[in-house]
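Data deposition worksheet. Section B asks for the primary sequence of the deposited chain exactly as it was used as input, without tags or linkers unless they were present during the calculation. Section C holds the resulting structure in token form. Section D is free text for depositor observations; keep each observation to a single sentence. Incomplete worksheets are returned to the depositor.
Section A, Depositor: J.P.
Section B:
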Amino acid sequence: MNTTRRTLLKWLAASVPVSFLPKSWATRHDDIRHILPMATDSSLSISVSVERPKSSLFLSVGDIRIPGNKMDSKGRYWSFTAKDLNPSTSYNLQLSDEDGGIGEPWPLRTFPDRYSEPDSLKLLAFTCAGGGDGFGTPSIQVFKPHTFRQKLFEAALLEQPDAAIAIGDHIYFDLRGDEHPSFGRNSKWMKLFSGLYLSLLYGSFDRSKAIIGTPNEEVLTNIGDEQIADLYGTRFKSTPIYFVSDDHDYFENDDATEDLVTFPPDDFSRAAHKAIADLYYPPLPDSPKPEWNRNFGTFTYGRLFEATLIDCAGKLSLGKDARLFPEAAEDWALTRINSSQAKHYALVPSHPMGWTAGKWREWYPDVVAPEGFTGIVSNELMSGAKRQLSAKAEKYLWQKGWWEQHQRLLEALGKRRHGSRFTFSGDIHAQGAISITQSGEMVFDEPVKSVLVGPVSTSDATWPSAARGVPAAQPAWLSSNELLGTNEVNGFTLFEFTNSEVRPRLFNCGGFDRSRNEDGRIQSTDEILI
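Section C:
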């Protein structure tokens, strides 16, 4: 709808009684760009963006009218929190500004009381939904077009999940310590060309300035509007969705070479991560510290299911006591594993347990190296060299403390947690399920199940076999049994919980071979039992 029509529509709405206008004319649908909600048993949090800046924005939750918190400098991005709500209650929500209602009302339900015992839960999980809309070259596609991803989302939502968890990489715009990204790191001319192209398309950051209230804000919203607001739109407005961050959400890939080490993130990367999160999606509830609600949180669905959600990138450390996340957060996670009263429990780190693709920031030492090589190897992308996964070569700057943290978590999950327990995650661009029987010297009497939930936007250049030259595989220091083969496909997982069992259904939506013209719809489904 163009500006002239918007102006005419507003003038007509002001001059003609609303009851005489067609329903579609009585509300202003065009103002809402995206809605992403989060729920607990007693609260609802909503992130909203609108097309045109507002001086104020309100959300009605039933009879409660809540003023919005403006998250940007212009008034396009707003957040709302409704507290002290009743559990297991469907509320009618309505956005409005000083001129009246915006869009249609919509329903959103709170979760069951955290001490109750609900009979069932359907939980949707996916990973790696970010990336430019169909970004690539004429011959190589880096990210799927939005039409593919949105068909995948629509197929997932047809399953009527009660909630969703989006695991990491909601944004791909790797800056590599610079003011704008480059694509084609092994070619000087490709770096130059892609850097210029992307800076013209989105703008360039000034790393010496703040994000909000400076020209950096427009660059950030150019990226976020495409990769989050335009992708999700209002599809999830009645489906609470929890966003877990990972490396790309800090505007960097987890790289470690002699020339550049991207993590721990610098001040600008942390600020960019926080700004994207604040503008586009709600914070996580029940984090170990209030200020960590963009890194860690808890998904609680009565006493049926609990999940501990962990960002393995933003607070990563190197050195003597290296961890993928800090000691205080680890202690919190171990406490939840040991003391959760939920019938089913899941550990959800942003980087998976049970797979390696030779990436630097993994729990595991495996690296992509020439056959038989035992020296130091830097993490490389698109090298084109013929190599294989190896734990005999030394991965540059890999930290054994990451593995030690992995062992502490897996020991608690596999040996001390009583009752149903498992882990699921994303990051590695594949889908599959395994049963971990041994980790290092640790042997599990009852194996720990691990699920790769499936990516959303992956295309030609971003499959592990393309980017790294090898598909994801079992780490050398683990032993596991395959429950479902690891496949480079886009897709999602629907976990179906009852009091007695957990049944993950893994939906394959294809996308590896573009010659097959798969469009994001479901190609096949596999079911396993946890």
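Section D:
The first helix runs from residue 3 to 15.
The longest strand covers residues 442-453.
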